[in-house]
Write a sequence for this structure.
């Protein structure tokens, strides 16, 4: 009997991670989702992740609770305003960068993977839209992969080699959306806003909302959450 290889999918409930889940399934992996409640102001993404996991079908969905507010240092975890209507092409690291977040998330995913005897981890890191995020660069992904194969019993005992998959790393938001639509992704159940209202309606003005709207606009579509597009 042929068994599909298991894979851990870092699933935020956002557009990118949902597309990654669809890609992993298309590529023949048996997906296990991992989400984080980490003190983020946009905690609504946890509910979105639950909806995505249920609708798209995963073999397990873990939600890890950690509190990065104890460190702060980010508009997502501290009393710092989320920038609005300020989408620019500069390469400065945005204040929405959460210190070491992807390293923390990937470390949890690595632990989950090792317990499942899974050797594939998928992350929605992207170096095009947010090239200022140091933990979204290809060289970072490769470095973490190297570390994973040095730091785990499974790899050092020769049971397998860990692979960190970042299929969106060189894709624009428009290309990501085009890929997801081709794979049947329902983006109406995802969330991207960094500063949603309690309703939880997206603000439509933070970098994440603007990039999302622009990506839909470049595909000739409206964002299903806001019915807004930017061309």
């Amino acid at each position: 009997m042929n068994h599909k290889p298991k894979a851990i999918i870092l699933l935020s409930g956002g557009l990118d991670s949902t597309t990654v889940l669809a890609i992993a399934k298309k590529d023949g992996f048996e997906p296990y989702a991992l989400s984080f409640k980490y003190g983020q102001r946009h905690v609504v993404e946890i509910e979105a992740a639950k909806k995505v996991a249920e609708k798209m079908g995963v073999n397990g969905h873990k939600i890890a609770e950690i509190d990065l507010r104890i460190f702060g240092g980010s508009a997502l975890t501290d009393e710092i305003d989320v920038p609005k209507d300020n989408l620019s092409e500069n390469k400065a690291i945005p204040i929405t960068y959460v210190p070491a977040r992807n390293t923390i998330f990937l470390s949890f995913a690595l632990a989950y993977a090792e317990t499942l005897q899974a050797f594939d981890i998928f992350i929605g890191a992207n170096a095009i839209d947010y090239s200022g995020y140091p933990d979204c660069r290809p060289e970072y992904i490769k470095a973490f992969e190297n570390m994973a194969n040095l730091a785990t019993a499974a790899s050092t005992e020769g049971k397998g080699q860990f692979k960190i998959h970042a299929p969106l790393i060189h894709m624009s938001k428009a290309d990501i959306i085009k890929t997801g639509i081709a794979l049947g992704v329902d983006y109406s159940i995802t969330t991207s806003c960094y500063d949603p209202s309690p309703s939880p309606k997206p603000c439509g003005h933070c970098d994440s909302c603007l990039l999302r709207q622009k990506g839909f606009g470049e595909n000739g579509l409206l964002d299903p959450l806001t019915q807004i597009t930017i061309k």
